[in-house]
Amino acid sequence: MEEVVAFIKDKYGFEVIDENTRLEEDLGITGDEAWDFFVDYKKKFDVDISNFFLYDYFQSEGCDLLVFLGFKKPKVKKVFIVRDLINGIKTGRLAESTIGKDIQ
Q1: Are 38 and 88 within 8 A, CB to CB?
Q2: Is the whole-model pTM more than 0.70?
Q3: With CB atoms 3.0 to 4.6 Å apart as the test, which of 13, 54, 56, 88 could cross-link to 94 if both were Cys?
C-alpha cells in the first residue's frame, strides 16, 4: 500500500490517499492522463494491463457532441480505486477479475 501511495503522491502530489480513494473522482486522473498513469504503473510494478479497458473506468478526452446536445446520455463509468492498483500488483495483472475485489 505504501509503495502505491508514494507512486501516486510522487506523480500528483496528493497528500490524503487510502485504499478507497477513487482515481478519477477524488484525484482527477482522467483522459490521456489516466492512460499515462497506467503506462507508468505497468512499468514500475510490472503489471500486465493488456486486458484492462481504461475507458470502462475513465472519461476520454474531448466532448461527445451527442451527449452535450442532450441526444444521448453519458455512459456511466465503473469506479476504480487505489485498492484495484494494489490487487493488480498482487496478481500481476489488471483485469475485470481483479478490479473491485478484495484479494488477500
Answers
A1: no
A2: yes
A3: 88
Cα separation, 23 vs 80, whole angstroms: 6
Backbone phi, then psi, for 55, in 5-degree steps?
-80, 5
CA atoms within 13 A on the CB side of 18: 1
Give the residue among 32, 31, 41, 45 at the shortest CA–CA distance from 11.
Answer: 41
Contact present, 19 and 81 (Cβ < 8 Å): yes
Residue 70 identity (one-letter amino acid): G
Map grid coordinates 501511495 to a residue: 5
Query: In 1-104, where do the E strands start and end?
Result: none
pLDDT tens track, the chain, 104 positions: 788 888 888 888 777 788 999 999 899 898 889 999 999 999 999 999 999 999 889 887 666 666 567 776 666 679 999 999 999 999 999 988 888 877 76
